């Protein structure tokens, strides 16, 4: 079992990464209103086109849908703690791709302002844990 000193910070990191990713999805579906980063799907697609300027428009749109799918699936896995290591690596790589794309397309300040590098690093740190307490993984682990 995970040491009690690691148990709650690990859970906090899992929840923080998950909620942050789900908040971004909520924004693109309009749940945060117009005073947010995108406010709706159309603005999110425009933003995605900025980040994926090197792709044809059809692939850029596909990347918006793909990113959204993973930004829903990965946080849900993290919240329940199922396949946590795989989900944490997924979050780390997804956020790393976002950070690199934002840096190339918008400059170094954008991913720093949104703490995308920190989120990616935190996800990779989470993935390096040996066990995941307070998780479905722990409950289903064979004794």
Question: Explain this structure to me?
Answer:
The chain is elongated, with a radius of gyration of 16 Å. It has helices spanning 4-28, 41-51, 57-80, 84-106, 109-113, 116-127, 136-140. Helix 2 (41-51) crosses helix 3, helix 3 (57-80) packs antiparallel against helix 4 (84-106) and helix 4 (84-106) runs antiparallel to helix 6. It has one domain (4-140). It has seven helices and no strands. The chain is mostly helical.
Helix-strand category: mainly alpha
The biggest beta sheet reads: none
What would you report as the Rg, rounded to the nearest angstrom? 16 Å
Count the helices. How many?
A: 7
What gap, in angstroms, lies between the N and C termini? 11 Å
Mean pLDDT: 93
Percent range of helical residues: over 70%
Quick rundown:
With 143 residues, this protein is mostly helical. Helices cover 73% and strands 0% of the residues. It has one domain.
